[in-house]
Fold this protein.
Amino acid sequence: MLPTNGRTSFLMRDAARHTAGAKRSKYLRRIFQFKQMDFEFASWQMLYLLMAPQKVYRNFHYRKQTKDQWARDDPAFLVMLSIWLCVSTIGFGFVLDLGLLGILKLLLWVVFIDCIGVGLFIATFMWFVSNRYLLKQPMREVDVEWGYAFDVHLNAFFPLLIILHCVQLFFINHVIILDWFFGRFLGNTLWLLALSYYIYITFLGYSALSFLKNTVILLYPFTLLFLFYILSLVLNWNFTKGLCWFYKFRVE
C-alpha cells in the first residue's frame, strides 16, 4: 500500500492526465502520427454515420468506460474528414470552373472558415448550452466535454459534406442550377436531407449522455427546416444556385 503522501501524489498525477488540457495535448501530438491511427475504424464510423448513426455513439460509451473520456482520442476520423473535404472542394472548383488559383482560394475558405471556424463556434455554443441548461444535476464531476461537443459536430458534418459536396456535384451543371422546377426540387431536397442528417446526428450525440435532460429540444429545428423547404419551392429559391454564387464570389 502506498504511503499517504505517495498516494496523494499518485492521485494528483492521475488527475492531471485526465484534465481537458492533457487530453487535448495528447490528441494534438497524435495528429501527425499516422501509423498509430486506426483508419479502418474511422472508415467504419463514417459508413455507419450514413447508414445507422446510433451505432457510432455506442462506441463513445465504450470509450468512456475504458478510457474515462467521451471524446475521441484518435484523430484518424478528423484526418479522413479533412481528406474528404479537400477532395470534394477541389471537385466543386472544377464543376464551377474556378481555375487553379480559384480552387486553392476556395479550399482555404472551406477548410479554415466553413469547417474549422464554424465547427469551433458550433461546438463551443453547444458545449455551453448543454452544460448550462441541459444537465440534470449540475456538478463539477459531470459535464459535457468540449472535445465531445466537437466530435458530435464532426459526426453530423460528415453526411452533410457527402450529400452537398459529393453527391450534389454530379447534378449541379446539368440539372440543379437550370431554371426549372425539377432542378430546384432536387437541389433543395438534397439540402433538406443533409441538414436533417445534421440535426438528427447532433440529437443522437447529446441524447446518448445519460446526465443530460430535455435533449428532444434539439429536434425542434426539424419543423422550421421543413417549413423553410416548402417555402423555398413556392418562392423559387434555389439553395444550390446560391451556394455556387457564394463560392464564386469568395474567390473573385
